[in-house]
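Issue: copy button drops trailing tokens. Both records pasted manually instead:
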Amino acid sequence: LKEENAVLKSKIHKLQILSETQADKMRKLEKKLEENKIKEEKEAQDLEAMVQHVEQNLQLMTKRAAKAENSAAKLRQENAQLQAELRNCRLEKEELRAGQAGLAAAKQNAEVALQHLLQVTTSSRASIRQLMSGAESLQLIADLLKSIDRISEVSGDGQ
């Protein structure tokens, strides 16, 4: 019985040592589990913070994209207006060039007309001089004829 008791005590002692070892292991595992939980919670918080940061960046980028689209629409509208203005300016330029060409043609026509007028004036003056000369000659002839008539009358009366 003593021997059996000693064996049982030895077994109990071994079991107590085993129990203490397992309790130590269990405490270590619980501590490790607690550390892992804390670590996972921190990682979860970090991930949550990262997700929030990404969401904020996404919202910011969405706002920027909307602004960029609005800006692009305004620029397209302004570009269309400038294109229309450019077309109008080109048409006006062509009209001005056509007007200048017309003006140049009118100027040239006026120059030609002036040359003709000068020629006609010169020619008219010459014709007027000839007419005057002819009129003077006719007057001289008329005077001469009158003189001859008088001479004939005086000769006819005096004979």
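Record 2 (pasted manually too):
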Amino acid sequence: SLEYDFYKDTCPDVETIVRSIMARIYSDHKDVPAAIRLFFHDCFIKGCDASVFLDDSNGIKSHRRESIPNKTLKGFDKIDMITEELEKVFPRVVSCADTIALATRDGIV
């Protein structure tokens, strides 16, 4: 189930970290709205689960990142940048799906 302020105990700075990185990204690159399209494509099939980030690995064919509708998506590098920073502060706590949602929200704002 959804819970407001889900990371308040495990990663209380998650929103501040994402917001500051998105602000920095936006000041350098005005293509932040790419996160909105990335979020849309992620949520399109079976919900917002970060599956758009799946690529073929270890013999498993996911075809999500390589599928025709997703080939023109931009912003993977931006989400990776945010994820790397979150992993430095709170390793293995914040999901990629939540990172995409927060980045998209801040990209809109």
